[in-house]
Amino acid sequence: MSLLPLSIIAMLGGLCAVLANKGIAVFNDGLRPVVPEYLEGKIGKKELAATSFALSFGLVIGFGIPVSIGASIILVHSIFLMTDIIGSWSPVGLRGVIIAFIAGAIYAIGIVLGLQWIIDAFALLPINFLSSLFLVGSPVIVGFVVFPTVAIAMQHGFNKGVIAMMVSVITFFLVKKYGIISINEETTLTINPEGVTLLAGVILMIIFAGKIKGSGNANETLLNLFAHRVSNIRKNWLLLIITGGLVTAATASLLISADPISLQLLSQEKFTEASLVSLARSIGFIPLVFSTAIVTGVYSPSGTTLIFALGILLRGHPIIAFLAGSVVIYLEILLLGHTAKGLDRFPGIREMGEHIRTSINKVLEITLLIGGGMACQAITPGIGYFWMTGLYLLNRTSKRPFVNLAMGPIAAITLGILVNILYVIGIYTPS
């Protein structure tokens, strides 16, 4: 890996840890409301650090890293959740800032290089199951197009969900049949059916939500109540825009991805679809990020996540991506109040965000579970589905279970390790 990508990821990891240490921005949505409690002296540093670790470490080990191994691109949770922990555990003051920056930078470089070392290590195993591991994400590439339909059904009811489903299916088949356009004898333009179907679903989702009008002022009330906390975000604009620029540059360098869906699409070089997914996902996060920012005075290092879609569109141009991402984060901070007030006029759009996030999680949970079963079956035909089913159900009985999203990748990785151990001791022979 060249020096520029390593420098980008090191700076990103270091700055994210610093933002967490100073209570300016954290990635974990659950940690964000806890930070002002610490800043106002209601809880101590030990309580903040313990909370950060409890909320984030399991997701790093059980979700971020396993999903990243399956696609060879870093799921951003693997970095940002750990920098939340590093920043929270680092001491107060200048010494803590220096420690947080150095530790965050080292960790970010380590996770990028370490992922490649893990992939290289697979080649040394008696049974290399890396190619089978890639199957974990294969259902995601097609399955993600259904999430607007699920979001519509959750928000507007079953009937409109059925309408959206039929429109999506018809769109898919029409593009599949007529989406190959001949430009000349040597050149043809192929329109991707998944991307167009997703776009159709998102348009329907916005149309249905936009019809719900309202005269409430929930966000405006929050702004009036927590104006001093919003000012805390604005006064740290420089650090936030630099971090946002680095997030965009790292995405443009294909180092990180915002979510497992776009990660899998990027690994398949389906860049248009990946940018659409990131854009649709960011729509769901605008109300959440802005509302929690107003209430807590703590932002997210990736803002509303719009910069991930921007980074994909500017792939291969990290310097331009850095500048563009910095501008976007600056505009987000500048328009924080105006956007929040605007959402009051369209409560359907505001509520749509929650349904988008829930539907994406549900789609991911199912598709990664199916993909995990496919990968397990490819690793060990005949016992793969047994292992996947058993591990998933056993996890649900655990006192400290992994999140369901992680079980597909975890099942495939653990089965691959198990068959290698059994092969070495002579119990298992691949057919």
Please specify the SSE layout and strand pairing.
Blueprint: H1 3-21, H2 35-39, H3 45-69, E1 74-75, H4 77-89, H5 94-122, H6 130-133, H7 138-143, H8 147-156, H9 158-178, E2 180-182, E3 188-190, H10 193-210, H11 218-225, H12 227-235, H13 237-252, E4 256-257, H14 260-267, H15 271-296, H16 306-313, H17 318-334, H18 336-345, H19 347-379, H20 384-397, H21 407-424
Parallel strand pairs: 1-4
Antiparallel strand pairs: 2-3
Helix pairs in contact: 1-4, 1-5, 1-13, 3-4, 3-21, 4-5, 8-9, 8-10, 8-19, 9-10, 10-15, 10-19, 11-18, 12-15, 13-16, 13-17, 14-15, 15-16, 15-18, 15-19, 16-17, 19-20, 19-21, 20-21
InterPro entries: Uncharacterised_YhfT (IPR019733)
Keywords: Membrane, Transmembrane, Transmembrane helix
Pfam families: YhfT
Describe this structure in words.
With 431 residues, the protein is mainly α. The protein folds into two domains: 3-126 and 215-345, no CATH class; 130-213 and 349-424, no CATH class. The protein is 74% helix and 2% strand. It has helices at residues 3-21, 35-39, 45-69, 77-89, 94-122, 130-133, 138-143, 147-156, 158-178, 193-210, 218-225, 227-235, 237-252, 260-267, 271-296, 306-313, 318-334, 336-345, 347-379, 384-397, 407-424; strands spanning 74-75, 180-182, 188-190, 256-257. The chain has a two-stranded parallel ribbon. A two-stranded antiparallel sheet has the order 2-3. Strand 2 and strand 3 (188-190) form a beta hairpin. The chain is globular. The chain starts with a helix and ends in a 7-residue tail after the last helix. Pfam families: YhfT. The chain crosses the membrane at residues 53-80, 92-119, 125-146, 158-175, 195-212, 237-258, 278-299, 306-331, 366-394, 406-428. Keywords: Membrane, Transmembrane, Transmembrane helix. This is Transport system permease protein.
